[in-house]
Amino acid sequence: MSMSPGLGPTDHPIGVLVSANSTREDCTIRTPHAIDPRVRLYNNAIGCGICHNVYSDQGDLLVTSNQRSVLCLSCHVQ
Hints:
- A hairpin with a 2-residue loop joins strand 1 (23-24) and strand 2 (27-28).
- The chain has a two-stranded antiparallel sheet with strand order 1-2.
- The protein has one helix and two strands.
- It has one domain.
- It is globular.
- Helix content is 8%, strand content 5%.
- It has one helix at residues 70-75; strands at residues 23-24, 27-28.
- The longest helix has 6 residues, at 70-75.
- The protein is largely without helices or strands.
């Protein structure tokens, strides 16, 4: 499922499980233990809350700044 509540569809998947072998043709994801601790998986799955936190002081309620793609690179291997 790809969705972005309130903003319409997005190309980022929601509900996908992350494991030690999480690779696809178009991306490679770090293992759950190698992901920045501010980026919290829920039951080892991708969800809105891994990147967003309603208590955040960052723009778009991000868990950390995404300047220079730091947030994206917390999970994605370049």
